[in-house]
Amino acid sequence: MNDVVQAGLWGLVAGSALLLGAVIGFGVRVPQKVVATVMAFGAGVLISAVSFELVGEAYDQAGLAPAAIGTLVGAGAYTAGNLWLARRGARHRKRSGHRPAHAQPSEAQQGGSGLALALGALLDGVPESAVIGVSLLDGGAVSLVTVAAVFISNVPEGLSSSAGMRRAGRGKAYVFGVWGAIAAASTVSAVLGYTVVGAFSPAVIAAVTAVAAGAILAMIADTMIPEAFEDAHLAIGLVTVSGFLVSFALSHA
User: Fold this and answer.
1) Given this model, what pLDDT does residue 1 score?
2) Residue 98 CB neighbour total at 10 angstroms
3) What's the helix, strand, coil split of the chain in %, to 5?
4) How many CB atoms lie within 10 A of CB 26?
């Protein structure tokens, strides 16, 4: 199969998990402890994938300095974008909204919040999908661990966020339109990760991988773990470590 097509297909597979989660979250009232537990597990899976598949790979390719600088740049860029979106109503975009203090605002409460939520979902999803395409550059085979990690983490993200959108009064067209668009954007991001980044030197590829890793780590700390801790705080450590070990085992299988 053509590598560009393969990158797009794997990006679509990972991104479609957001749409799957949105369907469940919008149509089924999943117990909050279940959502929180799956979110914690997904966070652990992503942390492991970032550590061994992304930062570790960047270090092996270019050394400590590019890996560290890239990771910090990615985290800084994500944080800056997240702060900008938070002021426009997207602060709790991954929250299910069952607690008023952490509910997403409706459009009537904060104009433009719907667009901010959509942009926030894009901000969260693009780095994850881009590294799927970049992983194809290493020997022509996608990192199945990275795909699995993104897919597993995307399901609870879409589930929790779509439940919050529903509670904020947003309809099916908006909810599924957003997540369908993000799934499509994931496909494009994976393709660009392969085609654009692949034209550069190994040092640049390593730096880009590290930037994506930093953005993903910042996203985990800022949006996934808080939602998980809210309802599964007594077990979040164990569940997160379990996800970490599953991903670690896959990467060394």
Assistant:
1) 59
2) 16
3) 80, 0, 20
4) 20
